[in-house]
Design goal:
- The structure is a homodimer of 882-residue chains.
- Chain A has 882 residues and is an alpha/beta fold.
- Helices cover 46% and strands 18% of the residues of chain A.
- The two termini of chain A are 47 Å apart.
- Chains A and B meet through helix 25, helix 27, helix 28, helix 30 and helix 31 of A and helix 25, helix 27, helix 28, helix 30 and helix 31 of B.
Chain lengths: 882, 882
């Protein structure tokens, strides 16, 4: 017994009337392609008749043990008859044959999921009828193409086996071009195909009905093919959606010189320019245009060749764009001087094109500003802001890691941070290759064009720092075998020595052998216009995570409205100060520590002076020291020896200190405000540096707004104690400078306990900044540096929808955040709340933050435009929902 | 301006009437000592008159910048007059001098917080008056004692400086005994004391009022002395409580042979026997009894010496015990044939005595069973269950660590788990000394008498495993310097070689040089009686954490009602199976892993057979594999070499595997059900072993109740996926065996996200077991293995009240637990809920679990009686509150 439902299974289209349309509900049911075919039919556009089997039937097919139900077969038959009547042809009738194309069609386009099957319905008998009606050569060419396609796509025979049989005949006949094959050659080819299939024990079905059933099964089956699953993973498409199947009457562009076929965009998809853009071939099928064997002509040439058809096509494209309010990507076929539109869909476009099209359409009165904003994919903006690999370049991709920081980079392989700095000094561009980076590597990372690591996820040290620097990074590339000692990188059989050229694509995670050509993307005037609109609509502030004056300037250019996270530890590594930091750590007394801190004070102060100046008039949130002290000490034998010498301590003493600071789980260890509690002098020095820098600038008439942020608070008393200490220091300095300085002291909410007890903490905090990196780690019990080994499998198995370090887990972590906001605001209704985790630059997470009532999000400088756009998009959908 | 309040500052007692009494509110206000003095006064017991300054005044003193307010000085003066009138003497009047004792008195007794100041009110003039009235020698002896005591306690002069001046005079006079000093000697002594003080520039105040004010300040000041803070930390007493000050008229036991002094318990505090127990000295002050210079007489001798006084004393002690319903510890003084009671308080007693007294008092009709249960400190029961160091033994304590697992152990020092096993085989008792233990050390830990570690806290691996084994452990003893290679332990100047005797006191954390005498505590019949009462009252089940049949049997004897946590990973280490486990880990294919798991299967099955048999009729919760695989691989060079050989792989291959499994934060890494997801074959093997063992025993007619527990679930889909797999396996086996088996599948709630989304998880879970160790780590963002370096400082600075790994953090972690319970029961109202973290054996945490609606707590076998008692205590107080 098969499951039977009363829901409509199949949606017919033809005769200017369709069961479906292009509504959202209908798209979900019959897929994007089917919905658009229905819509076009209803619009009176010439579309060959056909029908769409709904996505629900795909699910039923799987639930039914991969069997097409009898009910569905019956419905197919009914609809087939309607198509026959609409087209005036008959499926399987040699005298007047109706042929079909069969294609998949999911809710969203999934290119490469399944090839199309064309010419379905041909067999040994029908081919003869077609030959009579439409010419012999055409008929036999169609037949051999159909066998080839059907056997490949539906029966799984390798494509190249057919190609080699074809090549044999071409060689025998001394022919180089397929079009020169005679009818007899094609008949011979069909015979050879059949004999090959017989040898392979593959049955090619002669009955058209069987062909159709098998093709529909193949489309359903393709939904769970490896490449489709992979694509869904990469694009966050649930497996439960299923695919629809479009069965459409064939029309032929290869029926002679009055026939043709082509693809076109209603605007230029690379630049966005408002010109009809596309190409066509006469006497050809669609695959010929794509295959590139013959060079297609630009669409404009069609005006001369078939002026009436061209003007009909122009009329249609303008109608379609006006109807869908979107740039369209359409396929057409001319069969014996009659134009058919086979497909239309929203056209894919580059980021610059997306922006130009959106702005142009507003200017043309086609869409509103709000529509324009909603049409641009926030994450696509990333492309705009980084160099890219030239799309035309041929690449030798040898491994794939995580796309940890977008953009592309070319350089010579180096294996240590020191080497990176040295090579850079010699004027070389380098790629820093590390098992995983640590804060010690900062200098080398800054010197490198890009960073490649073997371990660590999307929020590993390498990834976070690289994004902050706007530098390309491929992380967690487990195929790498790095020998730091020998300075070699082995990937499969390829061995890179130090100095060998290597290219990274941080937007895709690809590692490429050799030097690829890069192109620099530029920000257009349209971008500025769009960002202007965006800023008027959004209702949340966008700040940046920036640790240096340079970062701050870049961020401000990108539209940052303050700094949401300035990590002071990065400053501890710069230049000579790391030595003073190490002296402090090694000091065995308070006095010793204070002496070392006194050396660091002026340097920190000058950092803050620079950052405050760059951000004048905007708030600057400075996080006091966060990482465990262990991170500041060297770890390899040679570095230990060097540093012991520098610091004038014995190697064994240094090693003992390193050992004593080693932690089993440093993430959960002696860091953050716990350092401030046990070594108050460190935070005191930092507070002094911040307030002194702020006071000096204030005295110069600048408007400085420091926000001191205490990290890793889990208990309100930690915050209270540190806040009191800082306040005393600050008030003394302000009195000394005799100036008016408004500063606030707040805390990160990054420990679950802090979110749970946010009411208590709010009483002591001037602001909350949700540190969603750590909060995600702790709420999930998941180390971001270690989760790479199994997190991908979790997403594959659909246990998790996303990597929670990339996309905020709204259900779990989000629940805790909402609780924290609610508790905090209960005590302090106007509590300022922001986010400074990596999620602050991710569109769906920004949407969450806005809805949770945040005052700002903070993200790395290069993601600010994305955040601005995403914020506006949320504001718009919120308004629509209200 | 000082703060002024209208609250009563001082509570007078005297003339059989007192302002205070022994209510709970009053105890909080005037301390235990003051409350009992008031109560005795009201009872008509002869108590020298006096007054108590309230604890609130201590707080005011600190708030007032460590100044006694004028209002308080006035009140002191008023009360002083009342004492004068009651005693018929006058403070500072040489003709009829009134002298005072001044003592601290907090809400709870804090021995060693502050020494008493006696004889206050003496000066160069008053001493002469006292001499006339009560004898010269007595007067001058009192005076020199007062100077000594006042200068030491109030002015901070070292005690031994006075002792050496006294010694000088004794030498000069050729006297060995203080009592042989003449009046002139004593006058000379006073003179020398004064000259010494003058040299030291210390002013000894002559005005009695000044003396009193200074002494009161000293008591207030002593509240925040280092040793008091230390004591409060160890005993969880908040610093905000403050201390009261008792100022009481002096009476003298050293006014000749009709005077005397003594201390007594109303029952024997060591055994609990119902006999009057104490000792006294004639012609002596209290300090003489304690100091041990003269040997006191047993209290019974007083019957002969002063029969009337004795019978008055007996009458009083009986009256006091009857009044307080508690064994009393009292101090008395006989001044010239008149008996005074100076103090009474509940007497400290050993655990066996506590039980005997409670049971006896019930039998005597003095208290109810409920009272008896409430009177026994649950945590004190620990003493009963472990060997103790003989209290009479002289100990050379050389270091102190955390009291990680109670009891005491003596043995020879060994430094590796293998050595422990080898020495044990040779018949030696050993103490295993490690930097920190790891699961590899299990065998050695089992072989050792006790375990001593340098690192790790109360819930470190060493501590948890030792408690489970009922084995003594001192953990986190940072004074240790261990050289595993040379097999030496250095503590300060002491160096232990392998084989040197060492003693551990796991109840105090003391490390003792050499061999201390141990005594075995035994469970008395009274213990059984008490436990019977307890079980009838408590309303929560007590289960045990047990991993072996032996542990299970021990636990059942202690009253376990099932197993709440059986950790399967410990079984992975035993005997030869670790090799199979390693084979599994090193296998690069599913087949290879399955082959290795097939070897482990029969061993796991036999473990479960043993445990199920020991726990027949009771539920057994088995947790599937939890730790990261890394823990099963060797870490030191030699072991790696050996094991590579054993497993027939290259050293480099093994090292590479170890390296690839290394994690930055293993706590948050690839462990728990994440292993079950990525290597389903491991959990499948475990499920098979559990269900097969259960089915075989069921077929034999035994009642087996397996509960399979999935660890580290953070997302319901993890649980759903694994549960489905296990159910299929289980149903197949049950069908095969053709038997009826009731098994359930539940989950640990140990990740914050699981608690937050407990509603979703409850839909898939038959039970919840809160893993509060990990839940505490993640909710606090605190690694239990690393927190040792700062957690003590947190408790010292009162940022946290307790180590949250010892005492459940009810405010933060508890909030999450309550949320989890609420969400879970909303979906499944009869959801079984338990706790299997270390907190399951801690009384205040058990109290929390009962109130949160848990069905059971689970703890290590040796803590079961404690849990049973604590559960009954909560049930009783709950009833009282209802």
């Amino acid at each position: 017994m098969t499951t039977s439902t009363t829901t409509k299974k199949i949606y017919f289209f033809g005769n200017n009337q369709a069961d479906g349309k292009a509504s959202i509900e209908m798209r979900n049911l019959i897929g994007g392609k089917g919905a658009n075919l229905a819509e076009m039919t209803n619009m009176g556009i010439p579309v060959p008749a056909g029908f769409t089997i709904s996505t629900e039937e795909c699910t039923n097919y799987y639930n039914n043990g991969k069997q097409i139900s009898n009910e569905l077969l019956n419905d197919i038959n009914d609809n087939l008859k309607k198509v026959e009547s609409s087209m005036g042809q008959k499926f399987g009738d040699p005298d007047n044959p109706l042929l079909f194309s069969v294609r998949s069609g999911a809710r969203v386009s999934m290119p490469g999921m399944m090839d199309t099957v064309l010419n379905l319905g041909l067999n040994d008998v029908v081919v003869e009828g077609l030959a009579k009606k439409s010419g012999k050569r055409f008929a036999w060419d169609s037949y051999r193409r159909f066998i080839q396609m059907f056997c490949n796509v539906v029966l799984g025979v390798e494509h190249n086996r057919f190609e080699s049989i074809l090549d044999d005949i071409k060689k025998e006949k001394n022919i180089t071009n397929d079009t020169n094959l005679t009818t007899d050659d094609l008949k011979e080819l069909v015979a050879r195909y059949k004999s090959f299939l017989k040898d392979r024990n593959v049955t090619f079905p002669q009955e058209p009905a069987k062909q159709l059933e098998k093709a529909i099964e193949a489309v359903f089956g393709s939904w769970n093919a490896d490449r489709a699953i992979k694509y869904r993973e990469l694009n966050n498409i649930p497996g439960s959606w299923g695919t629809a199947v479009n069965v459409q009457a064939m029309v032929f562009g290869n029926m002679g010189l009055t026939s043709g076929t082509g693809v076109a965009f209603t605007r230029n998809p690379s630049t966005g320019e408002n010109v009809f853009y596309g190409e066509y071939l006469m006497n050809a099928q669609g695959e010929d245009v794509v295959a590139g064997i013959r060079t297609p002509h630009p669409i404009q040439d069609l005006e001369k060749e078939m002026p009436e058809i061209y003007s009909e096509l122009v009329e249609i494209y303008l109608k379609l764009e006006k109807h869908f309010h979107e740039m369209q990507d359409l396929e057409f076929t001319i069969q014996d001087k009659k134009l058919y539109i086979l497909q239309t869909r929203n056209g894919k476009r580059t980021a610059p094109a997306a922006i130009k099209i959106a702005v142009d359409m507003v200017n043309e009165g086609l869409i509103s500003k709000e529509d324009a904003i909603l049409k641009i994919s926030a994450s696509q903006l990333d492309q705009l802001l980084h160099p890219m690999i030239d799309p035309k370049a041929e690449l030798d991709v040898i491994a794939k890691g995580l796309p940890a920081s977008p953009g592309a980079a070319v350089g010579k392989a180096v294996f240590t941070a020191d080497d990176a700095e040295e090579w850079k000094k010699k004027g070389e561009k380098v790629i820093l290759i590390r098992e995983e980076t640590s804060p010690e590597d900062i200098g080398g990372m800054a010197a490198a064009e890009g960073i490649l690591t073997e371990r660590g996820g999307m929020t590993s040290h390498a990834a976070v720092v690289a994004r902050g620097m706007g530098k390309c990074c491929v992380a967690g590339c487990s195929a790498l075998k790095i020998n730091e000692h020998k300075k070699t990188l082995t990937i499969g059989d390829t061995v890179f020595q130090e100095g060998d050229d290597i290219t990274l694509n941080g937007s895709t995670g690809e590692v490429i052998k050799g030097k690829a050509d890069l192109i620099q993307a530029e920000l257009s005037g349209d971008f500025e216009i769009l960002m202007d609109w965006v800023d008027k609509i959004r209702n949340i502030k966008i700040r940046t995570n920036a640790d240096t004056p340079l970062d701050s300037e870049v961020a401000r250019k990108f539209g940052a409205e303050g700094i949401g996270l300035c990590r002071t530890e990065h400053m501890f590594f710069e230049g000579d100060r790391i030595q003073a930091v190490r002296e402090m750590i090694l000091a065995n007394s308070l006095d010793g520590r204070k002496k070392a801190l006194a050396k660091i004070l002026p340097m920190q102060k000058s950092d803050f002076t620079g950052i405050f100046t760059a951000m004048e008039g905007l708030p600057v949130t400075i996080r006091l020291l966060d990482p465990p002290l262990h991170e500041f000490l060297p770890h390899d034998e040679n570095a230990i020896k060097d540093i012991a010498k520098e610091l004038n301590v014995s190697v064994s003493e240094l090693k003992q200190k390193i050992e004593s600071l080693k932690e089993f789980n440093p993430m959960l260890g002696h860091r953050g405000c716990r350092l401030g509690i046990t070594y108050p002098e460190i935070y005191e020095m930092q507070a002094q540096a911040i307030i002194e820098a702020a006071c000096e600038l204030t005295k110069q008439g600048k408007n400085i707004l420091p926000e001191i942020m205490i990290p890793l608070v889990g208990e309100v008393k930690e915050l209270g104690l540190l806040k009191d200490k800082i306040n005393i220091i600050a008030q003394n300095i302000i009195k000394e400078y005799d100036c008016q300085l408004n500063f606030v002291i707040g805390t990160m909410i990054e420990i679950p306990r802090a979110a749970l007890l946010a009411d208590e903490i709010a009483a002591q905090a001037d602001f909350f900044s949700f540190g969603t990196n750590d909060l995600t780690q702790m709420t999930f019990g998941l180390s971001r540096d270690d989760s790479g080994s199994f997190l991908q499998e979790y997403v594959q198995k659909e246990i998790l929808d996303n990597d929670p370090f990339q996309v905020l887990d709204q259900k779990g972590v989000g629940k805790l955040i909402k609780l924290g906001v609610e508790q905090g605001r209960k005590v302090k209704p106007d509590l300022k709340i922001g986010i400074c985790g990596e999620h602050g630059g991710e569109p769906s997470s920004i949407d969450f933050c806005i809805k949770a009532g945040f005052n700002y999000v903070s993200c790395s400088p290069y993601r600010i435009p994305i955040a601005r756009l995403a914020a506006a998009q949320t504001a718009l959908t919120q308004n629509n929902n209200n």
